[in-house]
């Protein structure tokens, strides 16, 4: 156990200080766990959650085709036509980004919606900074709303054996979807207050043109099939992953036949974030290693001891510790590590783990919004602004992100407790 703890501590430290090399660090650490004998080599393949890996890869590919079709840009343009001034345009774009982000990766959502905000800002000769920040933090908020909204949601779905519909209604009670929507409504009010002085009128702009509706059909089919699969009895553990990969394959074959070349195929395959997939694969093995050594059980015991066995205190610790950690480190390795700990805590207390699971995801997903480096979507948004010549300081970002995040987290914290305690 001591060796495993040291290896894990070194791994996490390196992940924190060298984010550009996270995948290589995780894979190297996984190899060390196997070579040292902590995790038997025969357990390696089964340690990786292939359902999660395939879901992420398939969804990323489908989203790439969806973006290429210009449908998100058209939808954004249609929304802008209905807004009277900049204040409502910013909030509308933020809410629109949130809706898309419930079904599409957060970074991809920012890349879709941000160009519309940039275009509006250029036409009105105003700064796009506030709008891009609002889009980024709203996309992070909605990532926890559905099974496919974010990598952390997919991780939770795998750990808790949850399907698409379980995020809507779980065991006869409102799921995370409704908790997140409550946070979205309250945080939208926060945005309206923050941007109350942005009253510049908006003139109509030319709509984006969609020439191919098949990718939109493909994305909707992914969602519908994930829902249908959830009703199948005795479905394979990789059912959701197989759905996502199969529909991606259909989309790619169709593009090859339509264009009679491999250009779109190559472009789509490049859009899949292999770095994240390798990171997750390595982390799955590392977590299996520390579980095998008894570390996860020991961490669970520490949480229980700190709280005196009080469920409310443990729940509070999990939520707010997740907010703080996710403000400074990537929430993917954090959630991947904490899910088995949450299970261990539930076993120690003899309770249903749902409360701890939902508190963990709410804190970790929303906490990333506190700082510019807390979530990949924030980094992507600031990168877009940098290319446009706008350098955003942390304090400028946090003037918007902190009140937004605190309202969203507080509402989630209260609702999850009231529904699931």
Q: Quick one: overall form?
A: globular
> How many runs of DSSP E, i.e. beta strands?
2
Number of helices: 20
Mean pLDDT value: 85
Q: What order do the helices and strands follow?
A: HHHHHHHHHEEHHHHHHHHHHH
Low-confidence sequence ranges = none
Radius of gyration: 21 Å
Proportion in β-strands: under 5%
N-C termini distance: 33 Å
3D structure, described in words:
Helix content is 73%, strand content 1%. It has 421 residues and is mainly alpha-helical. It has one domain (2-420). It is globular and about 65 Å long.
What descriptive keywords fit this protein?
421 residues; single chain; mainly alpha; two-stranded antiparallel ribbon
Write the layout of secondary structure elements.
Layout: H1 2-17, H2 22-35, H3 44-47, H4 50-68, H5 71-81, H6 86-101, H7 106-124, H8 129-142, H9 151-160, E1 169-170, E2 173-174, H10 176-194, H11 214-229, H12 239-259, H13 263-271, H14 274-292, H15 295-307, H16 311-326, H17 331-349, H18 354-367, H19 376-387, H20 394-420
